[in-house]
Description:
The chain has helices spanning 31-44, 65-80, 108-124, 133-141, 143-149; strands at residues 3-7, 14-18, 23-24, 90-91. By secondary structure, it is mainly alpha-helical. The chain has one domain (3-149).
Amino acid sequence: xxxxxxxxxxxxxxxxxxVCNSVGKGGFNARxxxxxxxxxxxxxxxxxxxxxxxxxxxxxxNADEQFVRNIVKFQRYLRKNNRxxxxxxxxxxxxxxxxxxxxxxxxxxxxxxxxxxxKWILLNNMNVEDQDGFIDELRRLYPQVDAILAGTxxxxxxxxxx
Length: 162
């Protein structure tokens, strides 16, 4: 299940959303992880001219062909803008700040968080110190994401066994 993690060096940390398992082409595609990536894409990408003709469905947790195409398009956008990521149609969990030391690659999920943060800062006239406010906004806009990040499955009764 997707979760909020702390990123960056001590004293200058921020919150990001990370997936627990790979999503997209060849990924594990856990419903909660897919839903969080869909929400990040739905929130952050339509405002960019490169994505004006791209359909970003509401987060539903389905890792269909459109979802994989959107990941590939996002990765190509990043490459076009000199952000080094693998263009493979898959988003892996971030482990550290870089995806590969030799290749100097970055995690696609981190780049998606970064664009969501940029949108939040620009729309709300916030300072960089408030860069992780987008997480609270995602939770407000998408109740299903709020349930995932709160650690409660959507539709769960949260019953304990006696």
